[in-house]
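Possible regression after last week's pipeline update?

I re-ran a chain I had predicted before the update to compare outputs. Posting the input and the new output here so someone can diff against the archived version. Not blocking, just want to make sure nothing changed silently.
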Amino acid sequence: MIIINSKHAKLLDYWGKYARAVVCDDYFKCIEPGRTVVLTDEVPILKPTDVVFVDINNPCLNLGSGPTSIGNCLNLDARPLPNVDFVVDLEVGKLPFPDGFFKEVYAIDVIEHVSYRRVKQLLTEIARVTACGGILHVRVPDMELIAKYLLDGKFPGEHGDWFETMSWYIYGGQDYGENAHKSAFTKPTLIYLLERAGFDDILRAFNEAGHPNIVVDARRWYNCRYKEVVLSLN
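New output (post-update):
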């Protein structure tokens, strides 16, 4: 359930297409059992239980959150965990959000768990829900570094014997159904995929210290007519 403050009621047209949404100023009277999302910039002193508040002026999304929350971002995951606001399988369908809604999106340790046949569509879908000038934060395993560790005969960490450690880095932990790697990335490949999807301003791309991960922050300017205006204001 999504509760929208009356002064933001115009958003109901957007959210009504994706999830049940109501206009309400008294959150305590409107909330129902189960996870509730409130889009508002006026968080009450007494916060209702089982409710997440999202600043309508700075909405952000945490894709594949698992049990980890990032600030006040909406959490989306394939598993119905206690902190998850939207249960969505990234392998199928669209993200349940309006176009250009989020100013910031986090995809930390998630895209590699999506089939390589689906990755391009998913990144395009992430770009759709990201606002013009919005930023995507991505972290994925670096197959080039993993291959180097494999050829050198030493990984930065141990996950059982050599066979288990090698398999863990390449194929993921596999301790639950969704935790398996289905896609492989190198830094140039990831940058290409991001730019292709519309994240055409790569702010930084580097390897994480102590682990064969690629970290990329990229801004979406593709198809944004007012890019020059936004840049001049900054």
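Follow-up from reviewer: compared with the archived run. Residues 228-234 have pLDDT under 50 and may be disordered. Marking as no regression found.
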